[in-house]
């Protein structure tokens, strides 16, 4: 019975993940472009997107604690309603050419994203310990549908409202978000039993190498993916002059690369261990940076973003599985909330930095700046390798060194 219930939860959460990511993809494709049309200063073009990540950051810990008190389902459904209203308001802001209203609506959309970020952990809640990486992986695989829905909506609704570029995109995803309510209404995850102590203090987890490396991998991995994805539309459309259709195609296949591997990433983690998969993610990121620097044609941007998506999958799922493995049920609210707070803080910082660096110094400097954070992940993995040297295959250290 429990296995059947968990399977139903995974399917429903995967569908909700697909619809949430569809909204996010449309925002990734269009928000910076809307900003370049409405913002008073060029370097503010990515402000709306950055504010989404900021409010997502501020939402993660309160949302996680609220889920402990109320349960996952009501918080998830409330997040969907916020997403629908926010996306609709973004469309209205474009109609009246109000940049600050657009940014405000983007901020509230970040609240919804902060809630949706826990779909993967919700799937792991009712899974056996050995099945947690697979549950997380399968829910994130729902984003593969978003890889096709999001760019198609962005591509085909750009001129949906005559005289107001991009407004139709946001009105469309507002309607898409409402479909999530039907899926989330059937999610059945019991609230965790709470004791007087509430579990171990959060400081205890920051002394665990597995938790620390999991947080670093997920946070920086997500931040660098967002960093590249935020600036790419500006580079492809405004600098390289390849057009909005080329931009939508690049982002589309980037998102495919993000989520398609999720069908087997959980199995790879179960077979080889999370550190090996995380190391592979670092190597793929280095290949993505190299591709972004080697040329300025469509296929170079395409290859860079596709590799970035693939590497993100390994780093985010691998890091999340490590975080999910260390907390008891009553500790999940604090532990997962803190982990996602670090992640969304990193993503918000990276997103804003991408727009500023791209506008002030250009694509090459912006891309080269990604090397530092990627090497931090590599050093964290090397540290974990030294701590767990006796339990990790020798070829793992070859990759690290």
Largest sheet: none
Give Rg in angstroms. 20 Å
Distance between the termini: 46 Å
CATH class designation: Mainly Alpha
Count of domain modules: 1
CATH architecture: Up-down Bundle
Mean pLDDT: 85
Verbal overview:
It is a single chain. By secondary structure, this protein is an all-alpha fold. Helix content is 80%, strand content 0%. It has 18 helices and no strands. Helix 1 (2-38) runs parallel beside helix 10, helix 3 runs antiparallel to helix 8 and helix 11 (244-259) runs parallel beside helix 14. It is globular.
List keywords for this structure.
globular; 401 residues; mainly alpha; Growth Hormone, Chain: A; 18 helices; disordered C terminus
TL;DR?
This protein has about 400 residues and is mainly α.
Set down the secondary structure blueprint.
Elements: H1 2-38, H2 47-70, H3 72-95, H4 99-116, H5 119-125, H6 132-141, H7 143-156, H8 167-184, H9 202-205, H10 209-239, H11 244-259, H12 262-272, H13 274-294, H14 298-324, H15 332-361, H16 363-368, H17 371-387, H18 394-400
Helix pairs in contact: 1-3, 1-5, 1-6, 1-7, 1-8, 1-10, 2-3, 2-4, 2-15, 3-4, 3-8, 5-6, 6-12, 6-14, 7-11, 10-11, 10-14, 10-15, 10-17, 11-14, 12-13, 12-14, 13-14, 13-17
